[in-house]
Design brief:
heterodimer, A: about 270 residues, alpha/beta, Rossmann fold, four-stranded parallel β-sheet, about 10% strand, globular, B: Fumarate Reductase Iron-sulfur Protein, Chain B, domain 2, 2 domains
């Protein structure tokens, strides 16, 4: 799927610091983006976008650690704060001011919950970065795959939407595609969770009549979308499982906003 | 004269009883832990005006919103009439506002009558939704006999009060036409005119009807006032302070625990001396008194509409969790604790707790923290905060998290990721 022509070079903060340089922005990759095979592709695509528009960025590489989000949602405040304070020490040591994350959970945690522990940064989610780049005219939807006329629906991640009222940025990234955008019955502030939040990703669901991602598939099938746009690696996993559950892998693709942007621009 | 004395006695008793019972609810709310919600008063007033006064969050369900608006406006505006009834009752006057208000009075009474019809309509529609169409939102495990009856009682009382009001006006109007006694020509009666023919023709019968309805209406209102502290209907009062003290931060932000910060800082840096940490206390919530007063105020504000539960992904997919039940359980438990204090004194401990006796672990672990319930609540109640506090107790005090979550914690502690991957491999994504 990926364009083999494009090479990415990913600078780390350690390398930058050694050369006495400071990046404009830190790309916080997140655990899913680092380890999950599907999410790694999205991570590389975010790098391609950053590289394409010439933003001076860096990642922490092996110096990054979990933000502590799943621990906090599961009630383990100790572990959360241990992670948070250690991360803040690393971020502050590199004098980081601005962060873009590839995951709404990292975004929410660093943006809202780190300040209380002394970590103050300007934090944006990658969909907001893409929106800014589109608005500034630095990103278009040309030179790559055409999404013209394709039915695309967007699934709101809870921690981007309801959690932080970011509803328009990811939609803006889709509007430039000249595609047929359709909203699901439950969207924006009424959006239905994929089922992974609150540390559910790391446990079996409690007993019930069906899985939440299967419930979500009903909305997706009703929308008749050919592409589900996601903006969260955990939603990505749940939605893909849902599509697989319905045996619709040929008809419905799940793509991250960053992947769609990369494809549309042929990066 | 006897009537006036009787009226004053009933009024005083009603006000006394209400303040006593409302005071108990207030005491129960203040059994909760402290939390600071005094910042940004301007935004707080604005939120209250929008959400409670303006009912902006009701509109997501248009039919319910319109019907609720009828009852709400009817209730608020018809209270002007109650003010007149109070004055008449105390001073033995009759329709005291009619003279000073002149022709405006007719407009007012006419307006009240139209509102009364709208209230009646809404109450009938609401009763039908609950009892004939049996909307799923009003069912559910937590909707046991009492909550269902409570809802019906409220609607029936409102229907009776409005009927009494209209019948009273109809009798009064007929008496006015007969030039009977002190029934001066006052008001306009666009609705009750139609009830007139159903009433007795003789002046005596009419006068009795008018008085009976008058007393029924005002005693009914005072009795209803005293029903409030026992009922979900208390939301008509608590919706205002509850929205004033709303959480103003992004919904994704969970509360921080300063007590934990002290311990973590001491662990990372042995020379760290925490600022006066106060009493150690419990991490998270095992019982209702471990929650904040705001959580408890929310529990008493909940009117059991079930919008939270109807959008909860766990509940929709058949899990045990119902955010409405979390609020109702919290209210029932803190009320029980309050009653225990009244009966057995301040230090009495029964053998029950909110966790396990009311809310099960299975409910708590079903939550995806998606904030749909919080977003859905028309009066800004936050069931998620209670769920999180209880998870904190289970995890930090009892170490009883589900095994898979304990594994996740272990991974995070050892290799900085929720999965069992080595930290050395964290940057491998850069190679395809």
């Amino acid at each position: 799927m990926e364009n083999p022509k494009s090479e990415i070079t990913v600078p780390t903060m350690a390398e930058m610091a050694a050369q006495g340089k400071q990046p404009e922005i830190l790309f916080w990759v997140g655990c899913a983006g680092s380890f999950d095979e599907r999410a790694q592709k999205i991570t590389r695509d975010i790098c391609k976008i950053l590289q394409h528009v010439g933003i001076n960025y860096a990642v922490l590489g092996t110096e990054e650690s979990c933000t502590g989000d799943p621990a906090k949602r599961a009630g383990n405040e100790f572990l959360f704060q241990m992670q948070a304070i250690a991360n803040i020490q690393v971020l502050d040591a590199y004098q980081i001011k601005k962060i873009v994350t590839g995951c709404p959970h990292c975004f929410n945690t660093i943006k809202n919950e780190y300040p209380g522990l002394g970590g103050n940064y300007e934090v944006i989610h990658h969909s907001q970065l893409i929106q800014q780049l589109i608005d500034e005219g630095k990103l278009k939807a040309e030179g790559g795959e055409s999404f013209k006329g394709k039915r695309i629906t967007y699934h709101d991640p809870c921690y981007l939407g309801r959690g932080n009222n970011v509803y328009e940025a990811p939609r803006r990234a889709l509007e430039v595609l000249d595609a047929e955008l359709v909203e699901m019955k439950r969207c924006k502030s009424n959006g239905l969770c994929c089922g992974a939040g609150g540390a559910q990703m790391f446990k079996e669901p409690e007993k019930g009549t069906k899985d939440i991602n299967v419930e979500r598939m009903a909305d997706i099938l009703e929308s008749k979308a050919q592409v589900i746009a996601a903006a969260c690696p955990f939603c990505m996993t749940m939605l893909r499982d849902g599509v697989k559950h319905e045996n619709k892998e040929q008809e419905i693709k799940v793509l991250d906003i960053a992947e769609i942007t990369v494809r549309a621009n042929g990066l | 004269m006897i009537a006036q004395i009787l009226f004053i006695i009933i009024l005083a008793a009603a006000v006394y009883l209400f303040s006593r019972n409302a005071g108990k609810v207030r005491r129960n709310i203040l059994l909760g832990r402290d939390t600071d919600r005094s910042d940004n008063p301007a935004l707080r007033w604005k939120t209250m005006a929008k959400v409670a006064l303006g009912q902006t969050k009701m509109v997501k369900r248009p039919l319910a919103a319109v019907m609720h608006f009828f009852i709400y406006v009817g209730f608020v505006i018809i209270n002007l009439e109650v003010l007149e009834i109070m004055i008449d009752g105390i001073f033995g006057s009759h329709r005291i506002f009619s003279k000073p208000l002149g022709s405006l009075y007719g407009l007012l009474i006419g307006g009240f009558e139209i509102l009364a019809v709208l209230v009646l309509t809404a109450c009938v529609v609401f009763l039908a939704r609950r009892n004939i169409f049996r909307l799923k939102r009003f069912r559910g495990v937590e909707m046991t006999e009492w909550p269902r009856s409570d809802a019906n009682y409220i609607l029936i009382i409102e229907i009776l009060l409005m009927t009494a009001f209209l019948t009273m006006n109809a009798a009064d109007h007929k008496l006015q036409l007969l030039n009977y006694g002190h029934y001066i020509k006052a008001g306009s009666f666009p609705v009750s005119t139609f009830i007139g023919p159903l009433l007795p023709g003789d002046a005596n019968g009419l006068a009795i009807t008018e008085r009976v309805c008058w007393w029924f209406h005002i005693i009914g209102i005072l009795a209803f006032l005293n029903y409030l502290p026992y009922s979900k209907h208390f939301h008509i009062l608590l919706a205002f302070p509850n929205t004033y003290y709303s959480n103003l931060k992004p919904k994704g932000e969970f509360t921080d625990m300063a007590s934990v910060t002290n311990e973590v800082k001491a662990m990372l840096d042995p020379s760290f001396v925490p600022e006066s940490s106060g009493e150690p206390g419990r991490f998270g919530a095992k019982d209702a008194t471990d929650l904040t007063w705001k959580n408890l105020m929310e529990a008493y504000t909940c009117t059991e509409c079930g919008r939270c539960t109807s959008v909860c992904p766990a509940n929709i997919t058949g899990k045990l969790l119902s955010p409405r039940k979390i609020m109702m359980d919290t209210r029932d438990r803190i009320t029980e604790m309050g009653n225990n204090i009244d009966k057995y004194g301040k230090d009495y401990q029964d053998s029950k707790t909110l966790l396990d006796n009311y809310i099960t672990r299975e409910e708590l672990w079903a939550c995806t923290t998606c904030n749909a319930c919080v977003d859905a609540c028309p009066v800004n109640i936050n069931p998620l905060e209670i769920i999180t506090e209880m998870r904190r107790y289970i995890v930090m005090e009892e170490s009883q998290a589900p095994t898979s979550l304990n594994n996740m914690f272990g991974n995070m502690e050892n290799n900085g990721a929720p999965w069992k991957y080595s930290n050395a491999d964290r940057f491998n994504w850069k190679e395809e």
